[in-house]
Amino acid sequence: MQMIKRDTGPARGLAPFGALFEDSFMDPFGFFGSPLMQRRLLPAMNIAETAKDLTVSVHVPGFEAKDVTVDVHNNVLTVSGHAQEQQENTDQEWVCREALYGEFTRQVRLPDYADGSQASCKVKNGVLTIAIPKKEEAARKTLKIEEE
Fold first, then answer.
1. CA atoms within 13 A on the CB side of 103
2. 109-143: pLDDT as tens digits
3. What tens digit of pLDDT does each residue of 31-81 get?
């Protein structure tokens, strides 16, 4: 299984120093807050495999089911979502604001033995769980050796 990288970071011209400019030691108190230094909305993803299926867990706390889309096409699993910025009292001034909002997309290339057409998903306690069964022909079978 292969993760498909989606680069939303700084311009390639800053490489190899792009990550350096995003580190908190360059701006420990967040005073500069430039787009290069802002954190990205990228939910954590865990992938587990059993003899029967693959299980993908995506942590999406604060998201409602209607705000997340799961798609399987050409053996690529795509999970995307959109979190709206909550409009609050406009006469307040933020001292610290760490809540993330915006759009995200995570993609994973599924192995050939995964049956994406039979995938199912559910969300509970902010964790989206996607179950992808393996194709029957992919199941391991130990053959009995007969003597003649």
1. 5
2. 999 999 999 999 999 999 999 999 998 776 667 78
3. 455 444 445 678 899 999 998 999 999 999 888 889 999 999 999 999 999
Tokens representing 22?
């995003």
Domain 40-87+97-136 sits in CATH 1.10.10.10: no
Residues 6+ apart with CB under 8 A from 21: 10, 14, 36, 37
pLDDT value at 148 more than 50: yes
Distance between CA atoms of residues 55 and 46, nearest Å: 8
Show the 3-state SS of the chain: CEEECCCCCCCHHHCCCHHHHHCHHHCCCCCCCCCCCCCCCCCCEEEEECCCEEEEEEECCCCCHHHEEEEEECCEEEEEEEECCCCCCCCCCCCCCCCCCEEEEEEEECCCCECHHHCEEEEECCEEEEEEEECHHHCCCCCCCCCC
pTM of the model: 0.64
Domain boundaries, the chain: 7-38, 40-87+97-136
